[in-house]
Amino acid sequence: MTKPAGVARSEAAYLRRAGMRSVVRSYSGRMASSRPYLLAAGLGVVAGLRSMTAPAILSRAAHLGPPGLVRSPFRLFGHSTVGTALAVLAVGELVVDKIPFIPARTKPGPLTGRALSGALCGAIVCHAAGESSLNGAAVGALGAVAGSFAGRELRRLASDRGSVSGWVGAFAEDAIAIGAGAAALSRFA
User: Fold this and answer.
1) 12: containing domain
2) What is the dihedral of CA 59, 32, 7, 25, to 10 degrees?
3) Does 15 share its domain with 99?
4) pLDDT tens digits along 44-101
5) Cα separations (Å) of 124 from 75, 108, 186?
6) Gap between the Cα atoms of 47 and 31, Å rounded
7) What is the mean pLDDT of residues 155-160?
8) Are 47 and 126 in the same domain?
């Protein structure tokens, strides 16, 4: 849609003339960017695949370049000791995930842990971007639940078709989780 000729003042003036006063009033300030929410969702999906990978990657990124966490409730997340501890937990999870008697990721306990991991990542990302931590936590948790079920189904489909063994599928999922987490941070951060 092209703007009528003679309207050169601003986008807000054009919207007011078009009869959208309530829209202008509601959004006259800075429009919320979707980038932090996309990153929260992406890290949530990674947390759904591997619950400790997303926080470990985010903590490392926060340590290398603090994303606005100074003087926030999440400031310790960027500390190198926390990043190291999360990395150790992430590697431990990659190993433990291969043990057959570990409960399924979609059982209530593991699913809750993954949702909490996604919520933490979403809250941190959105807080650092000046957006709502609560909304970020909700997006991250939903991404984690979606990632948990999607990861389970993809792994099941691959093993049912006989194209990959359980071990190969698990290692492929590890690589996807790490790669997707790193890609999300580099693309959206």
Assistant:
1) 1-31
2) -150
3) no
4) 999 999 999 999 988 888 877 655 666 677 878 878 898 899 999 999 988 888 787 8
5) 9, 24, 16
6) 28
7) 75
8) yes
Q: Which amino acid does the sequence have at 61?
A: A
How many CA atoms lie within 13 Å of 64's alpha carbon, on the beta-carbon side?
9
- Please give the model's pTM, rounded to 2 decimal places: 0.75
Q: Helices in the chain by DSSP H: which ranges? A: 11-17, 21-27, 35-49, 53-64, 80-96, 108-128, 133-160, 166-188
On whether both 89 and 113 belong to a single domain, the answer is yes
- Long-range contacts of 84-87, Cβ-Cβ distance < 8 Å, separation of 24 or more: 86/52, 86/55, 86/56, 86/59, 87/56, 87/59, 87/60
Which of 26, 25, 93 shows the shortest CA–CA distance to 56?
Answer: 93
- As for how many domains the chain has, the answer is 2
Q: What is the rounded (10 degree) CA torsion for 131, 134, 135, 141?
A: 130
Please calculate the CA angle 176-179-180 and round it to the nearest 5 degrees. 80
